[in-house]
Amino acid sequence: MIDWEKVQRDVNEAYGDGETLDYRFAALRLARRPYAALIGELLREFWIYDTTELDTDVAQTLALRNDKTDVCLRLSLIGPYASLSDKDGRFISSAQSSPRLLNILKSHEVGLIDPEDLFRQLNVAGAGDFDAYVLLFSFDDDAHYQFHNLDG
User: Fold this and answer.
1) Where are the beta strands (DSSP E) in 87-150?
2) How confident is the model at residue 89 (pLDDT cuts 50, 70, 90)?
3) Strands, DSSP E only, in the chain?
């Protein structure tokens, strides 16, 4: 269960209170390797390809594959939050996820945000309201538009 009050505090801490969003924190946080232990454990179960683009992402973005799974895992650089999508870009709920992957995330105290919550509005003081997905994972307008308009 995601504590949305904590998410809001984490968002405020990361973005500050400017009139525009400042994403410079992402590179600094990624350099600290906050998910190194989690990724180490994932490597025992999955082939991993890091597709993080700090020009558009505020998350470490990983393609995970094995004989049963082919997903994109986003690990937020705002706090211990994750989202999953399938190879076609459709978000995946915890109920649809690999039990092993869920156990790994849980053991590292990373909360998987279900698709219906990715578009929950969060506020950045001075800059306004944004979808949780934009603030926690990626501000790529094309990807955001595509995800927002998924059928099913």
Assistant:
1) 111-112, 121-124, 128-131
2) confident
3) 47-50, 59-65, 70-76, 81-86, 111-112, 121-124, 128-131
Spatial CA neighbour of 140 closest among 31, 54, 27, 45: 54
Per-residue pLDDT tens over the stretch 31-61: 999 999 999 999 999 999 999 999 889 999 9
Rounded distance between C-alpha atoms, residue 118 and residue 108, angstroms: 21
Q: Measure the CA–CA gap between 87 and 107, rounded to whole angstroms.
A: 25
Q: Rounded CA gap, 128 and 18, in Å? A: 10
User: pTM for the complete prediction?
Assistant: 0.89
**SS3 assignment for 23-62:** CCHHHHHHHCCCCHHHHHHHHCCCEEEECCCCCCECEEEE
Q: Using CA atoms, how far apart are residues 111 and 4, in angstroms rounded to an integer?
A: 11
Distance in angstroms (rounded) separating the CA atoms of residues 27 and 29: 5
d(CA 100, CA 77): 23
Interatomic CA distance for residues 18 and 79, integer angstroms: 20
